[in-house]
Amino acid sequence: MDAKPPMPRKRIYTRSGDLGETALFAGLRVAKDQQRIQVCGNVDELSSWLGLARSEELHPTNEESVFRIQRELIEFGAEIICLTPVRISLEHVRQLEANIDRLDALLPPLTNFILPGGCKAAATLHLARTVCRRAERRFVSLLRTEPEISQTLLAYLNRLSDLLFVMARHENIRRNIAE
Questions:
Q1: Domains of the chain
Q2: Could you read off the pLDDT of 19-75 as tens digits, one per residue?
Q3: Which residues contact 107 (CB under 8 A, 6 or more apart)?
């Protein structure tokens, strides 16, 4: 039996970013503060906060939703960086809306503003929500200069921040923590 030699391991660092540039997937070099990179950095940060939220024993339905959203955020970033055809569709937005409606029906009506906090899971989801809103604002700036990018991505971020707000409320309510 002929054993194949192991593939050489690639280094994690390339040194190619030391001058403040990075490469889009297609190889085009852009500044690290370019709007596409800013949006993707915010989406990456959002996914990291969601990963932290998942470590806080979310309700199983919320856990499942957050895990799915993290995978979708990879697709979101790919659509921005790889300049690929639409990966996030209106169906993704509709799924977020269905999740919002399902969770919101379990919650008492809002009567005032809510301070972020409560249990650690809810507080982390609130942090993720604020990063999502920042990604949304950066995305709006990107759309002003590159209007050919799918507007569905903007709707996705907008609904996602709403879902994260409702999830944070749900995590506090299910633990009997006052809002």
A1: 28-105+113-174 (1.20.1200.10)
A2: 788 877 777 788 888 899 999 999 999 999 999 999 999 999 999 999 999 999 999
A3: 166, 169, 170, 173
